[in-house]
Design brief:
Layout: E1 16-20, H1 27-37, E2 41-45, H2 46-51, H3 66-88, E3 92-96, H4 102-111, E4 117-122, H5 126-135, H6 146-155, E5 160-162, H7 169-180
Parallel strand pairs: 1-3, 1-4, 2-3, 4-5
Length: about 190
């Protein structure tokens, strides 16, 4: 079998979507559904990049932890590198990550600059997010509801905010497609 060099890159994708919100807001479920509705797309679950660290990985926690904070930006950088590669190959990257600070959001904006970045913040409220966390297979024992207030103060005027507390996954996907301009992409 002979492998000939091929051109991997094509016309860049129309954009990328960064889907964020506190744990339990529906990011991963909605990101996978959104990616599934687009003709050419890739779902980049940023937590999966954190899981690639075999030794020395430190997950974010409510306690101050400089190393965990550094790794938040490391995984964001790797997510952007991956998203850029997919976007250059005509795939719309749909990233999901917990982004609650302006510095973290600005890092995404400057690092993933190859295509327009559409920021969508799922905001069902802390009570709904906590209820969802308790009902899912991977139950979280940490109450992340304080992140809702931080996210609203840090990112209040950023991106498109969607209150998906009473929406189905499909309704949320349609709302994202509408606010991001991806509605025209089959």
């Amino acid at each position: 079998m002979s492998l000939n060099p091929v051109s991997i890159d094509r016309e860049s994708a129309a954009g990328a979507v960064l889907l964020t919100g506190i744990p339990g807001s529906g990011k991963s479920t909605v990101a996978a559904a959104l990616a599934g509705r687009l003709r050419m797309s890739a779902h980049i679950e940023v937590d999966a990049l954190q899981q690639m660290i075999v030794s020395g990985g430190q997950w974010p926690s409510p306690a101050e932890n400089a190393e965990a904070d550094r790794q938040i930006f490391l995984r964001a950088r790797n997510a952007c590198l991956l998203a850029d590669s997919f976007a250059r190959a005509s795939f719309v990257p749909v990233l999901d990550d917990v982004v609650v600070s302006r510095a973290h959001l600005d890092f995404y904006r400057t690092t993933l600059a190859a295509v327009p970045l559409h920021i969508v913040i799922l905001a069902p409220g802390p009570a709904v997010a906590w209820q969802r966390n308790q009902a899912r297979e991977k139950v979280l024992t940490t109450d992340w509801s304080p992140l809702d207030e931080l996210m609203r103060s840090e990112l209040g005027q950023q991106g498109a905010w969607i209150d998906n507390a009473a929406q189905t996954v499909e309704e949320t996907v349609e709302a994202i497609r509408s606010v991001s301009g991806l509605a025209s992409i089959p």
